[in-house]
Amino acid sequence: MSGKQSRTEQILEQYGYDQSNLIAILQEIQAEYKYLSEESLTTVAEKLGIGTAKVYSVATFYENFSLEAKGKHIIKVCAGTACHVRKSGPIYDAIHDYLGLSGKKKTSADGMFTLETVACLGACGLAPVMTVDGEVHSKMTPEAALTLLEDMRKKEAAQ
Asked: How far apart are CA 84 and CA 128, in angstroms?
């Protein structure tokens, strides 16, 4: 039994293996690992006595759940109206290219960054806005965004 598996089972035990707590269980597993692995979803289905398809349908219905491992740092680029009008699209595109992402892939090959878009970050007056690990960066440009990521990489390398 892997460490991940035992923690998943601990979470299930905390909730008394109660099917009515499926969403809360998935939330806690994701908080622990930053995503929902196939192994964890299968364990949840088995231990709760429900079909794997039902667990997957819940995990894929809610946008906050991720079936893909996330990077160490989570970048969110606002795609709301104010940010869009003030050119958040080119910021997203520059980061996407910088991280070498393609298709539906959201996480850089080195596992350092995950890039996401959000409908609104609630900072319209500071548009265009992005967050890195929840920290707001306002009035961004593609160049400023890439400089920020480069600085983060340098800081990580120095540690």
From this structure: 7
Tell me whether strands 130-132 and 135-137 are parallel, antiparallel or unpaired.
Answer: antiparallel
Whether the link from the prior residue into 142 is cis, omega within 30° of 0, is: no
Minimum mean pLDDT among 1-10, 21-30, 92-101: which range?
1-10
Residue carrying the six token digits 């265009």 = 128
- State the Cα–Cα distance between residues 140 and 88, nearest whole angstrom: 8
| pTM score | 0.73
pLDDT of 1: 44
Instruction: Count CB atoms within 10 A of the CB of residue 143.
Output: 10
Give, in degrees to the nearest 5, the angle at Cα 80 between 59 and 66: 15
Count CB neighbours of 154 within 10 A: 9
If you search the block for the tokens 């906050």, which residue do you land on?
Answer: 64
Do 128 and 139 contact (CB within 8 A), yes or no? yes
Residues 103 and 15: their CA atoms lie apart, in Å, by 37
